[in-house]
Records
---
Amino acid sequence: MAHAAVVADIDPVAGRAPLIEGDPSFHDITEVVSAPMEWKPPLGWYIFLGVSLCFLGLFGFSIGWLFWEGTGIWGNNIPVAWAWPIVNFVFWVGIGHAGTLISAVLFLFRQKWRTSINRTAEAMTIFAVMCALVFPGIHIGRPWLPYWMFPIPNQMDMWPQFRSPLMWDVFAVSIYGTVSLLFWYIGLVPDLATARDRATTRTRQVIYGIFALGWRGSFRQWLHYEKAYLLLAGLATPLVLSVHSVVSFDFATAQLPGWHTTIFPPYFVAGAIFSGLAMVITLMVICRVIFKLEHVINMLHFDRMARLILLTGSLVGLAYSLEFFIAWYSGTEVELFAFLNRARGPFAWAYWIMVTCNVVVPQVFWFKKARTHIPTLFIASIFINIGMWFERFVIVVTSLHRDFLPSSWDYFTPTFWDFAFFAGSFGLFFTMFTLFVRFMPMVAMAEVKSVLPQAHVHNRPE
Amino acid sequence: MADDKVTAGDGTFGVLAEFSSPETLMHACAKVRDKGFSIWDAHTPFPIHGLDKAMGLKRSWVSAFVLVMGLSGAVLGMIMQWWVASKAYPLVISGKPFFSWPAFIPITFECGVLGGASGAVLGLLIMARLPRHHHALFNSERFKKVTDDAFFISIEAQDPQYDSAETPRFLEEIGATYVEPVAA
């Protein structure tokens, strides 16, 4: 019976199976997506929130200690003056890329399977960018100075230096955060209106009502809405590519062997999308089970994401090998040494963790069985998250610890506070995410409804 | 289906009609359009492709906001950097001229994107007349389903063609499953 229904629903034009399993009605989608916002959350949710809040508390305490004591609490020292704070910053910005990729790039390519996962991916982007922005805000340990980064008239009559890639980074990341937030919010408006119209208490009605802006599903509004959404997607696509390119300029414009590489922009962008997709899979695997969204976020979606991971993972692998080739081809002794030192020097362990997690592990996704097997997906995504953190560690720390002058070579050792900041940033991320799944529609209802077979009008009037 | 709702009269916003599917709604829209109504609207839980044509709507000009604000953002971004680097705080870096514009391209681009994205949101809010505190259609209890799974057409009493007896009958004729007058 169910099979017959599915076969009947195959789009006669596209000839494909439906994106959402189980042949749901429009109302079924509203129910299944609204349920987590309306039910009393399960005990697991409170436990998860509690644990996340503990880590968030650790983050707050660590930041307080940093401001009190200074940057000496970290392992950063000459020669490795840029260490975990910048590693964490790049790690989080990278994770923040898949959201906009899934939302904007796949939207422009008319990949309709994105509708099941784009909302969560966008939320992930925003929370990851928040985590990332903490690090440049605090890493100098002087919380009264970050306003120097912005072109604000001040009593010193001093202005930022716009020829510096670090300034480009300030603009790129903060504008990326702003535009991602706008894109996410505009996408949320119709679904917030659903939450408003289903509200059972006055408080919920008022709060969701304010954020729904008075949306009434008018088609004269939808017309402008769709245009605005398309244009936001069109603007976000070059933006997402530019942001991680700019992040890579922080390194690429330096003279340091291991950083001074023209391949960095595309290599960083591919890596960012790679790590972001892995994080989306990690979060989705958990959320779809807890919130009973298995039909909405199904194997088709995981299969497509795993293919993108395979693609971007292979691009990252290609970049790793090209770096070695160019180092040899350049004929520059120091350059070649910097790369051989990565693979054979004191930090070789980090380099090989990176290669194993980022290049070897994703190869499992050549097999369809792996792309649609939840435990494999979950474990592989965790390995990729670890591998991508180590990629940034390798780039930052191994390049710095042995530069031109052997007399200044040293080994880098993190302190307790380095770990506390990293774990604490996960506390911030998961606190935000846990609150998000409880209070906001975690699947874009209006968009999912529009890709159901019954939403299409085949026999149009003139 | 008529119940205790306010009947048509002076305090009337118009009439609300429900349709069972996107398909019946689209065909009904084409008929409302052909009948010559001008102050009316369709209401759907999600955008339906082709409905703009069936309603006789012209293209959205949100794109104009994006173009203007995007270009302004880029120009302002470049002007800011030119002013800071060559007027307010001139420093010689690597022997380059004060206005070494290629180095200013990334921020110019980012400012352009910020302007364009703000333009898209602002354009949407202005064109869709949002946010608004209340709308007469929210007086209808039935209308709450518009954000769930219901498809509506509303015709306002201000429309010159509107007739409190004739218009609801017309909507039923073209396939409405439920018709209700809405108080202003």
---
Amino acid sequence: MSDTATRPAPPAPPKSTGVAVTTAIWWRRALPMAALYAVSLGIALTLAALLVMMTGASPWSAVEALYEGSLASPAAIGLSLDKAAPLLIVALGTCIAARAGLFNIGQEGQLLIGAAVFTTIALFMPGPGPLVLIVALIGGALGGAFWAGIAAVLYFWRGIPVVITTLLLVYISAQVVFYSVSQSWWLQEHLPTGGVMAPQSDLLPEDRWLPHFGEYPGLNFASTIVIALVLTVIVTVMLRRSTWGFRLRMLGMNRSAARRAGVSALVFGGTALLLSGAFAGFAGAAMVGGGNHRMQPGISENSGWDGLLVALVARENPVLAVPVAIFFGMLRAGGGFLASTGVPRYIVDVVTAILVLAVVFPPAFRLYQRQIATRRQAKALAAATSGAAA
Amino acid sequence: MQTQHAEAPSGRTAPAVELRGLTKRYGSIVACDDVHLTVPQGEIHGLLGQNGAGKSTLVKMLLGLVSRDAGQILLGGRSVEIPDPLAAAELGIGMVHQHFSLVNELTVWENVTLGEPGRPDPARTKALVRSIGERYGLTVDPDVRVEELSTGERQRVEIIKCLRRDPNLLILDEPTSVLTLAESRELFSVLRRVVQDEGRTVILISHKLDEILDATDHVTIMRSGRVVAQRATCDTDERELAREMVGRELSKWVAASALGDLDRLVDPSHSTDAAMLDRTESIDEDRFPVRLRITDAYLSEEGRPQLQGLSLELRAGEITGLAGIEGNGQRALGDVLSSLIPLDSGTVEVDGVALPTGRPGVMHRAGIGVIPEDRHQSGCVLDMSVAENLVMSTVNSVATRGMVSRSRIRANAERLIEQFEISTPSPDTPMRQLSGGNQQKVVLARELSLDPKILVAAYPTRGLDVGAIEYMTQQLHAAANRGIAVLLISTELEEILTLSHHIAVIHRGAIVGRMRRVDVDAERLGMMMGGQAA
């Protein structure tokens, strides 16, 4: 038996000697980062201000509008939450797929299909409102799962990359949805003869809407955010604690080892992909049931894309996704209000995008900076020492 | 001539490298403790020691990968600072690492020019590769992609990458762990040329005693971070080296294997070791039931046949050694028994029950434990913790109603860590941070903790030091004694001869010969491995 003393354990990182030291280190790391965020956001805001000024509005009033639209009143806060909820649900699904090592980027399409299926069931199914609502919500989730399932089948059957199929399916879904709302036998609205038929569905009967909390001037929001938060807890616990989450993680980190241990990529990876589709589809269903109450081709307002972005910014961590989704929701709510003050809608989108970049930029820049610094340091020292040795 | 060289150091010129009292601590662990080492210009210096003896840390300080806590480094008599690898390169220190750092998709010349500043110059780089190749006998085609090269050729590329920077000091870390015997010999003759003709200096890190004896002029032996002995290679022998390295006498059995002493292994009358006599007792064929039966297995991958009618039986309580030259279907066999790939035709039966091949987890559930050929690829998940790796295939056993219990994962880990003497800071340490030997122990511990009927061990001691080899050897032996049918896949005959009751020879995806351990005839074995009828 070999003597363990002759083979010391691999070096452990030096343990911190006390709280004070750790805090000091934390501050030394956190301060430049905070400064970087300040600079980054500062530049973004300046750019945004310039853009707004070009449209003839005052930047300060734009900021006021953003604040008023997202935080200033209880109603505005409610709107922010309403906007955040679908993003969070989409992001949760994305986290699940990412954990299994699959990169679903077709949430936008899955969301649209989910919304269409939800509307179809909610409009055509007879029966008591709440029952129809539940069936329609489940239908929406299944619709999204089906849409992601097409990508899953192509991947596991023919090895076609998920990134490509999910992305391309977004465009097909947009066509399908537009078709659905322009066919009178399907979703197109029924108006008294002579009315102009818009490509949209009838308004859902009120008993098939998602429950709404509060009344307008006060804090009011659809129950979607509550569902989203419950889902966050469930997803977090399942991913962290369940054997399913354990196996999913194994699969994502090492497919061969997982396969040997009996984790089938088809079963677990496929399920993860279907689930991420189901989450997106459910988000779409909730957007119709909780907000619009009718199907329109533009209903998603890019919620699928932004939900994906939320997951990325939150580094595929479901808990972190909550604040990120709320931040995005605030931008969306404030942006809507800003548009109503006369600033063109596309400027609002550009400003939102700039702000997102400003938030994503610092960590990336920090990494890059560190690489450059080490390289330069290395070169300088090398030059100095070789001079001394020569 | 070599000896002269070695015995007349530094009279005129200062030694190429001199280390004075180098010390490095990691927390409470002293990785290098006051190491003094002098290597004269123009010699091959062996650095011998087990994993964790401090060899790597010492070399990392020389390469600027690790900063030292105390001591002095002198190159050519001048004290130098080596803060980072670039500085080391500037100072003329080059290193060939144990694991290759090549981009498989790129050609040889592209790999050689990689990391150079400025625009790559294909013509010049190719000419350079050819000229270095000619000068040192490192022939390799600069236009071939690295993925098409054999392991030996890949290492040549690594050495060319190093030599093109014209280093004064060349460090090689376990260079032969991936090479065949012939390739190793070739490597040593290249090193000899580098040293003799050009006056460069080579430090050869190894834990293989025979190659230290073959290739070096002086040898420094490290144990527990200290230099325990320094010898002129001609004044020492295998026994002394082994004793100094391990700090005690090894069992003769393991020592013979570690020393590559084939004669002693083949002819048991040379030995009086009890373990060896036990192994050579004739075993009654029918005494043990057949656990695993593979019949007529065929398998092709990307059009290349891997298994071509392989049939094999493993019996309970027996170790079957699968001898053969690498690349004759061993990997495919291991993959099939890991449920990674399905057979094209043929059957795999465990205790008479045919198993569907290639279906995830089936082999494992049927009681086949595997220590895979490449533990990083399918043996463990590097980014999960040691504790998680230990329950990887039995996560249900530490879960209640689908929820994993952390305390039970931990308890299981603590039990196995103690039982298998795994050296890890804590059960929660990521697998990635463990040494190779300890990663291998984690895999072994997990597979054995499942109480398998069959254990497949593919190259279980590859890259391990003598102490860890001895441990692994004992564990496999003990497994067989408990009634497990063991399949030992290895290219090292010594290892197979040490452990096996039966030997099967694999060639081109089929078993071409079987013999009992007692009947082994090294010549016949070698012929069969080479595909000659015997």
